[in-house]
Amino acid sequence: MGRASKREEIAQAALRQFHARGFNATGINDITTAAGVPKGSFYNHFSSKEEGAVEALSRYAAALRFDMLATPGQPALERLRAHFEHLGRDTLDNGFVRGCLAGNFSAEVADHNEEIRSAVRRGFDQWATLIRRVLTEAQEAGDLDNALDTATAALFILSAWEGALITARAEKSAAPVEAFFRIVFDVVLCKGPS
Length: 194
Fold this sequence. Notes:
Order of helices and strands: HHHHHHHHH
């Protein structure tokens, strides 16, 4: 009888290590030690550290709770706010030390590694598309000004969120996240006078 695959343990450990330490500071040994497996086990499942990082990004995306953006029976802008509130709680609960894995990889290695840059871009593109759909739905419901370019607004919201996380980490403060909510939801997405 063959041994059980350790891929799941390795992939989860890679996600935790990359998110906590970053790409460059995380070695294969760090991942396998955290997974409780021999170092050679990593290469039974991943051809490179970069492939492990791309898998970690995929798993991280599941934690972003994109499903919240499509919750039936809830107005579109409420869903969007709930999504970012969920992410904001994670940032606060972790003491402003981890940020967004995609944003972290983008800042740390995207200029030097095409495989990771492409994976980060695909993730951001997917996220912006989901935000755009919510904004379009809000327009169709009459809750958002039809003059708002939803593609541009989605890109702005995503960029503002990533910037808020970086600043929150630097300041060790919730103020940038609070500013994100005030500006995005009370100014940018405010319907304005009828």
